[in-house]
Design brief:
The complex is a heterotrimer of chains A (312), B (315) and C (376).
Chain A lengths: L9 H6 L24 H23 L38 H37 L1 H16 L2 H12 L3 H27 L3 H8 L4 H37 L11 H10 L5 H29 L7
Helix pairs in contact in A: 2-3, 2-10, 3-4, 3-6, 3-8, 4-6, 5-6, 6-8, 7-8, 8-9, 8-10, 9-10
Chain B lengths: L19 E12 L2 E13 L4 E5 L6 H8 L7 E6 L2 E2 L5 H10 E4 L13 H5 L1 H6 L3 H14 L4 H4 L9 H14 L4 E5 L7 H18 L2 E6 L2 H7 L2 E6 L2 E7 H6 L4 H9 L28 E4 L2 E3 L13
Parallel strand pairs in B: 3-8, 3-9, 6-7, 7-8
Antiparallel strand pairs in B: 1-2, 1-4, 4-5, 9-10, 10-12, 11-12
Chain C lengths: L7 E14 L2 E14 L3 E6 L5 H9 L7 E8 L2 E2 L5 H9 L2 E4 L3 H4 L6 H12 L4 H14 L5 H4 L9 H12 L6 E5 L7 H18 L2 E6 L2 H7 L2 E6 L2 E7 L10 H9 L13 E2 L13 H12 L2 E2 L30 H8 L12 H20 L1
Helix pairs in contact in C: 4-5, 5-7, 7-8
The chains are: A mainly alpha (312), B alpha/beta (315), C alpha/beta (376).
């Protein structure tokens, strides 16, 4: 009988095989999970890059005031739209008014990251509470949750934002609240769907059989299992928050000038994009790298904590 | 003399010293395709220390009945009585106490646990809910694990995905044991396990049953497994019990045609296992008609009596 | 083993299957050799992880990407080993019909049964739509679907589980295969439905004189309905014989262990079942020669007991309480198995339906279970 022509007999190969222990994760499970091996180096590189980038960003934003040679964000250091030069302030060139792009990006990080994180938290809290109650109790509670979510999504988001910002005030506080309210609809829907999917799982029944009350089941059983779902949409939602803030700036309802924000810089740079593309390039790249980092870290955490198992 | 015209008579197969009694239990749900009447008038009881096997094919209502005992959810009508008390009428405090005495083991060992928890937390969950102090909790967790043949030191810090199906199922049993129940409903506990693992898990169930004097309601579609575990057996079909009696009697002299069909269909290695005898003159309209249960052998009842009109449409 | 002309339909020699995984190299099949003669039914029995499903998938070319296959396979004399999996699939698609465990995932839920069957029929033969429909109707009738002409307009969810499996069988028959494979085809079905499907398969096999392979984890399913049986464990075949001789001495220790663990309809309540402890070997274990593997496995196969403790699950500083597996069934050392059964009456009725060897093993079990009860 013929043998496959590729390579030595598998038997010889096998006797020389070494079982490589996993680097991350727990001990060898008794029911092994067969995962096809992914290119390890690419994944690890991406993760550490993401960590490095975010660390750098946060450090720069926090310690912006003490970075040597960094001009203030509202200081004119040259003519408009100058290309990058070798000074600290001019490292990324100047914007449409002559201010340092680097400085505005770093100070802008404060605003944009705060907006991204806080408005996400606000939206999450609203979404989790409404979605959890609606999905767990169903009936009238679910109908209420639906009404809330549908109303929020039916109103044109920009109009809603403008209305809220006018009411609360065009400050960091007002804008984050407004953004949080507008994005809550997404979190309500996702939470409610995930809760409904989980509420009849056997471990919830088991908890009830053991005497667990509703609150305990919601917080200790269902909530932790929502994390993977939420982890996949949160980075994306954060990015949207940053960009929407930019639209607000564009319309004059954003963070009042001259305080920089990435969204604002994008909006402002859009005007002169044709002639001076570099001005809009920096905030876009920064935003891209930040969102990419959020996503990568989110993915990594999700796969680390994902305890789904496969049987042979 | 009272002028009550219609006093429903107690089913003849209910006994006096029962731990758990289900009387005319109905369970109905709303589904996308309308109202489904999964359980239609089920009556049986379980004595202390006795194992009742609940057997039938998919859709017969056995799982729903098992869950109704634990009120997950409870029946839409009919009574479930534990130690003589109707569970519907209990105050919330007494209900919580009753909950501890009735526990359940589920089919899929992996989905019965929160996958992020450690074994020690899983087994101790009931104790945590009851507010048992930590030191006592550890002792009771260790004792429960020991009863299923595991030690806290060996498995306590592991997570479900690191364990095999058989080990997970034993942890499930330990979890139910830790709160000190009197009766455990086992819902297809070995259906997804390999043959050797299945046998060992059944042995564990036997062991804990003996050690703790437990009653079991053993729900399964596998007739051989039920036979090895049960003192009495109830056969369910389309939401009703069609035969109930001592396991030996039911398997050796099956009275109802459906029971005979089931027994004939079970694949066996040794044809000598099929040892039944019995008359073949039973009605053959059992698929569509519901009949009353009548006693044809000591303690052994089968749905061969007169046609019951209980007001439900017979689908 | 050499192909004996056209008597052997499917032959496999020294088949190995390897896969790279995060934990290392998984050796899923470790040198499997077997053959299926024409017109006979072969049963393949094994617990999870034994490789029984992967064996068939390898032959059919349905292995996961990146899997490495070694050894030789041939179908009806034609060598399959040199073919790429895709070519293998194409070649076998016309000659082999397969029925899998879950009909719901094998059927497209948004197309009618008729459309899917007609597609399968026309894939294998050049027919017009109307002719294909007639062929489909005829096949559905053969598998026991009533009113097939109306039913071909229905969608999969309108059929019950058993009916869907019958539809799958009909689809597997569209190419008039020489070999029909049922891979755990009845595992998810109710017992009465299962009997119907197995009876159907048996009938079709006899009518068409096909070869058939029945794969199951359930020894009882295979024991009644196959001509030959192979038992798989740890990626290799450990026992192979005619089904009627499965329990003729010398009984293989693993087969015996499997059988002893299966509960019987005539057992007393509260019987403890003797069973293997521990776990089957992992696919990540290094490759061993058959002799070495037998030696390693023999140790596990000898520890049949009805004790509830598993090695590794109990840690106790007090040496005396560390679990030592005590064989409950006497004579469970390998080699003595044959002696045990041989001690019994030699009068196996020829062609009768009671196997004395089986009887005596069960008597041992019952006797020792009683003894166990007494000592507890």
């Amino acid at each position: 009988m013929t043998q496959l022509s590729n390579g030595p007999s598998p038997r010889t190969q096998g006797l020389n095989a070494v079982i490589r222990p996993k680097r991350f994760g727990t001990s060898l499970p008794l029911i092994p999970r067969i995962k096809p091996r992914r290119p390890r180096t690419v994944r690890r590189g991406a993760f550490w890059f993401a960590v490095a980038w975010l660390t750098l960003l946060v450090l720069a934003a926090v310690f912006a005031d003490v970075i040597p040679g960094l001009p203030a964000y509202d200081e004119k250091i040259g003519t408009f739209a100058q290309p990058p030069d070798l000074t600290v302030g001019g490292l990324l060139g100047t914007d449409g008014v002559g201010r340092s792009n680097l400085s505005r990006i770093i100070y802008g990080a404060r605003v944009s990251l705060t907006i991204a994180i806080v408005s996400t938290l606000i939206g999450l809290v609203i979404g989790l509470v409404v979605g959890m109650i609606g999905g767990y109790y169903r009936g009238a509670w679910e109908a209420t949750a639906n009404i809330i979510a549908n109303t929020l999504s039916a109103l044109p988001p920009l109009l809603l934002l403008l209305a809220l910002v006018s009411a609360i005030g065009a400050s960091l506080f007002g804008i984050t609240i407004a953004l949080g309210v507008v994005i809550a609809d997404l979190y309500i829907r996702v939470t409610k769907g995930a809760v409904i999917g989980n509420v009849n799982r056997e471990y919830v029944l088991a908890a009830r059989a053991l005497g667990a009350g509703d609150v305990r089941i919601m917080t200790r059983e269902i909530l932790p299992n929502l994390v993977p779902v939420l982890a996949s949409i949160i980075p994306m939602a954060m990015a949207i928050m940053i960009v929407v803030e930019g639209s607000l700036s564009f319309l004059g309802y954003g963070i009042p000038a001259p305080t920089p924000s990435w969204g604002g810089m994008i909006a402002a740079g859009a005007d002169i994009m044709r002639q001076f593309p570099l001005v809009i390039f920096w905030p876009v790249v920064t935003l891209f790298l930040t969102v990419f980092s959020f996503n990568t870290i989110g993915d990594h955490l999700a796969s680390r904590t994902d305890v789904r198992e496969a049987k042979l | 003399m009272s002028t009550v015209t219609d006093t429903p008579t107690r089913a003849a197969w209910l006994r006096d010293d029962a731990l758990l009694t289900l009387d005319d239990v109905h369970c109905a749900f709303k589904t996308a395709s309308g109202r489904v009447h999964a359980v239609r008038g089920v009556t049986f009881d379980v004595r202390p220390g006795e194992t009742l096997g609940l057997v039938g094919e998919s859709g017969c209502g056995k799982t729903t009945t098992g869950r109704a005992i634990l009120r997950l959810p409870g029946p839409t009508s009919g009574t479930v009585s534990f130690r003589g008390e109707d569970m519907e009428s209990l105050s919330s405090g007494r209900m919580r106490a009753a909950r501890r005495k009735l526990q359940m083991i589920f089919q899929d060992p992996l989905s019965a646990f929160n996958p992020r928890r450690k074994v020690v937390d899983i087994v101790g969950e009931g104790l945590d809910i009851q507010g048992v102090p930590r030191s006592e909790r550890t002792d009771r967790i260790a004792a429960a694990l020991e009863q299923v043949g595991m030690s806290l030191a060996a498995v306590g810090d592991r997570r479900p995905h690191e364990l095999s199906g058989g080990q997970c199922q034993r942890i499930s049993i330990a979890r139910a044991l830790a709160v000190g129940p009197d009766l455990i409903v086992c819902d297809e506990p070995v259906a997804s396990l390999d043959v050797s693992v299945q046998a060992r898990v059944l042995n564990v169930l036997q062991e804990i049953r003996e050690r703790n004097g437990l009653s079991l309601v053993f729900v399964s579609h596998d007739l051989a497994v039920v036979k090895v575990m049960s003192d009495r057996v109830a056969v369910m079909y389309r939401g009703r019990i069609v035969e109930i009696g001592p396991a030996d009697s039911v398997y050796r002299t099956p009275l109802h045609p459906y029971t005979r069909r089931l027994l004939d269909a079970v694949p066996v290695i040794d044809p000598a296992e099929r040892v039944w005898t019995g008359a073949d003159d039973a009605e053959d309209d059992w698929r569509t008609v519901d009949r009353a249960l009548v006693e044809r052998a000591p303690g052994h009842f089968a749905a061969l009596g007169e046609i019951v009109h209980d007001g439900e449409q017979v689908p | 083993m050499t192909a004996t002309g056209t008597d052997t339909l499917l032959a496999v020699e020294d088949l190995t299957l390897e896969l790279d995984a995060a934990q290392g190299t998984a050796h899923i099949l470790r040198g499997v050799s077997m053959s299926v003669p024409r017109g006979r039914t072969l049963g393949i029995v094994g617990e999870s992880g034994s490789g029984k499903s992967m064996l068939l998938r390898t032959v059919l070319g349905l292995t996961p990407a990146g899997a490495r296959v070694g050894g030789a396979m041939s179908f009806d004399g034609e060598d399959l080993s040199a073919l790429h999996p895709e070519a293998r699939r194409t070649m076998l698609g016309r000659r082999v019909g397969v029925v899998f465990q879950n009909p719901m995932t094998s059927l497209n839920p948004v197309r009618t049964i008729g459309a899917q069957m007609a597609e399968a029929v026309r894939f294998h033969q050049k027919l017009s739509k109307a002719q294909a429909r007639d062929v489909s109707v005829d096949l559905l009738d053969q598998v026991g679907i009533v009113n097939p002409r109306q039913r071909i307009r229905d969608f999969p969810h309108q059929f019950s589980g058993g009916m869907r499996q019958r539809v799958m069988i009909a689809m597997a028959l569209t190419c008039s295969p020489d070999l029909l494979i049922a891979d755990e085809a009845t595992t998810a079905l109710d017992v009465t439905v299962q009997k119907g499907i197995l009876d159907l398969l048996q009938r079709i096999q006899e009518e068409r004189r096909m070869s058939m392979i029945l794969v199951s984890h359930d020894l009882s399913v295979v024991a009644g309905r196959t001509d030959d049986v192979i038992v798989m464990y740890g990626g290799r075949i450990v026992d192979r014989r005619a089904t009627s001789a499965l329990f003729t001495p010398p009984v293989h220790p693993y087969t015996r262990a499997l059988m002893l663990a299966i509960p019987r309809l005539d057992m007393e309540a509260h019987t403890r079942l003797p069973a293997l402890g521990g776990n089957p070997p992992s696919v990540f274990d290094p490759l061993l020669s058959p002799a070495e593997a037998d030696e390693r496995d023999a140790r596990r196969w000898a520890t049949i007991s009805s004790d509830i403790v598993e090695p590794g699950d109990v840690v106790d500083p007090d040496e005396e309480r560390i679990f030592r597996p005590e064989p409950v069934v006497p004579g469970s050392e390998i080699g003595a198995v044959g002696t045990l059964a041989a001690e019994q009456q030699a009068g196996v009725a020829e062609g009768g339906d009671r196997d004395v060897a089986v009887d005596t093993i069960f008597e041992d079990v019952a006797r020792d279970a009683d003894a166990e009860e007494g000592t507890r």
